[in-house]
Amino acid sequence: MIKKLMAANWKMYKTWEEARQTARELVVAIGHDLPSDREVLLIPPFTALQGVGEMLAGQGGYFLGGQNFYPEAEGAFTGEISPGQLTDAGCRFALVGHSERRHVLGEKDELLARKVAFGLENKLGIILCIGEKIDERKNGLVEEVLTRQLEKGLGSIDRNVSAKDLSIAYEPVWAIGTGETADNEDIAEAHLLIRKKLKDLTDQGEQIRILYGGSVKPDNCAGIIGLDNVDGVLVGGASLKADSFSQIVLA
Ligand code: PEP
């Protein structure tokens, strides 16, 4: 059974104590109701990883993730963090290529491909984020953009990568943090395209989780999570409060 992954990206929000408190409130709000076919992933800022990890200790079905890393084991890379440092802090997964890393910080497909391969080699599960910009959608380029981002991003990994270690997050750039959600038909179409491509590129493409991200909220989550080929969600704004994220997790 593929478990749905309900992921919270806290971006550059929350102090150590705020993050711990939100994690604590979330675990209490979900209580014993976490369905056996769902997993929760909290992705706080680096400074709060250890504190949030303490709140999740002993809680089955909860995981910790990093927002980013640099594809080297160690070295003179001021301001960066390695996969080994993330796993040392308790991370099971890390995001690669979030749209803010691609479009605000200028990360290119070539660097992202190195991150995907190096993270996997170093026992970090990877969530590769892909998605088109609004002008690309208007110009009918969705398929071309998603295909390029997948082929390049996964271009340096083994075909036999385990589905437990790799997920894709489809996040249309125009839907992130804007309150605009792609409609269910567009989500289903994009996820089907991604599924087909994953089956071409990897042996376990049928099982690799494909998450949707882009203004997911308590009132639209159930409809999205029930679509074919949607194996979870990646949530920004609505994950910052335990109340709304717990409703999403349980939707
Ligand atoms: C995200 O940060 O990946 C995201 C989807 O943000 P939001 O839910 O706020 O659109």
Question: How does this structure look, described?
Answer:
The chain has 251 residues and is of the alpha/beta class. It has one domain (4-249): Aldolase class I (TIM Barrel, Alpha-Beta Barrel), CATH 3.20.20. Helices cover 39% and strands 16% of the residues. Strands 1-2-3-4-5-6-7-8 form an 8-stranded parallel barrel, surrounded by 6 helices. Helix 1 (16-30) packs parallel to helix 2, helix 7 runs parallel beside helix 8 and helix 9 packs parallel to helix 10. It is globular, with a radius of gyration of 17 Å. The model has no long low-confidence stretch (mean pLDDT 97). Residues 9, 171, 176-177, 213-216, 234-238 line the site of phosphoenolpyruvate.
Topology:
Layout: E1 4-9, H1 16-30, E2 38-43, H2 49-56, E3 62-66, H3 83-88, E4 93-96, H4 99-103, H5 109-121, E5 125-130, H6 134-138, H7 142-153, E6 166-170, H8 184-201, E7 209-213, H9 218-225, E8 232-235, H10 242-249
Parallel strand pairs: 1-2, 1-8, 2-3, 3-4, 4-5, 5-6, 6-7, 7-8
Helix pairs in contact: 1-2, 1-10, 7-8, 9-10
Phosphoenolpyruvate (PEP) binds next to strand 8.
